[in-house]
Design a protein that fits this description.
Oligomer: single chain
Strand content: 15-25%
Shape: globular
Helix content: 40-55%
Mean pLDDT: 80
Distance between the termini: 19 Å
């Protein structure tokens, strides 16, 4: 069965013993209006219609008590930016924040160069790593496993309209070609590896939206993640955090890593390549 947001919405509604009619009366609309038809809710839950507005998804998470990450959203509300810094950067383990695209790829690659232990890579950062970083990946595979998680290109091809992190319609439609090319290059890399090392390169695709583009590592004692949160709208500026592992289990490092692993082990929406 093809995954879509409607499945999660239906599960949330049913867990609250709420009818479609009740949800329809609470459904958020633009301009602080509420209410849609029951047929609209039914079409959403069956995947006939898609939700493309991030604010609507976030409001539905609140109404249905759904963890935001299950809807492809970060746990941090972009419409309430004070939430991110409420306890201070040190508490969260944040050592750098930027919304500039200039050093975006450099941040990812520098983090991978530093990596010692298990590596975790998701989203479009992997496209760039597949493009020209095969030697770095090979080096890291001699240290530990590398987990690569990227959007399923077949899912992208049929669901491109909900790729809200891409503003250009044509780019959204053709995005699956970039992913297919990255998978091809990564498979070529895996075939070139020694037999005892090749299994350490683990690649999975997922059929939903994951709110974090990330590259990072964790060796038990230390760790670092470079993370972009995709659902910061309407400014269309994705803040990028560089996170150090610290002793706080509530740190942003641990929370993002936990979301990655939750996605990685969700057999319903991921498949191994």
């Amino acid at each position: 069965m093809r995954y879509h947001y409607g499945i999660t919405i239906r599960e949330g509604r049913e867990s609250l013993k709420m009818t479609q009619s009740q949800l329809a009366s609470l459904w958020p609309q633009t301009g602080d209006r509420i209410g849609v038809s029951v047929n609209y809710v039914s079409d959403i839950e069956r995947g006939i219609k898609n939700i493309t507005d991030v604010k609507t998804l976030r409001c539905l998470c609140g109404i249905l008590h759904i963890p935001p990450w299950k809807m492809g959203l970060s746990d941090y509300d972009p419409f309430n930016p004070q939430q991110i810094t409420h306890s201070g950067y040190n508490h969260y383990g944040i050592i750098k924040v930027t919304d500039s695209p200039i050093d975006r790829i450099l941040d990812y690659k520098n983090c991978l160069l530093e990596a010692k232990g298990e590596c975790f890579i998701s989203g479009t950062s992997m496209i760039h790593i597949a493009e020209d970083s095969s030697d770095i990946l090979k080096e890291k595979l001699y240290i530990g496993n590398v987990h690569l998680l990227l959007l399923d290109p077949d899912w992208i091809e049929t669901n491109y309209s909900i790729l809200t992190f891409m503003s250009d319609e044509e780019d959204r439609q053709s995005f699956h070609y970039e992913i297919r090319n990255s998978i091809r290059k990564l498979n070529q890399l895996r075939k070139s590896l020694p037999q005892d090392i090749a299994p350490r390169l683990k690649i999975k695709t997922y059929s939903t939206i994951f709110p974090y583009i990330m590259t990072g590592f964790d060796n038990g004692d230390t760790g670092k993640l470079v993370v972009e949160i995709l659902d910061y709208v309407p400014e269309k500026r994705c803040p990028r955090f560089t996170l150090n592992k610290n002793n706080d289990r509530n740190s942003l490092f641990e929370q993002v890593k936990d979301k990655f692993l939750s996605m990685w082990h969700n057999e319903f929406i991921v498949k191994e390549i």
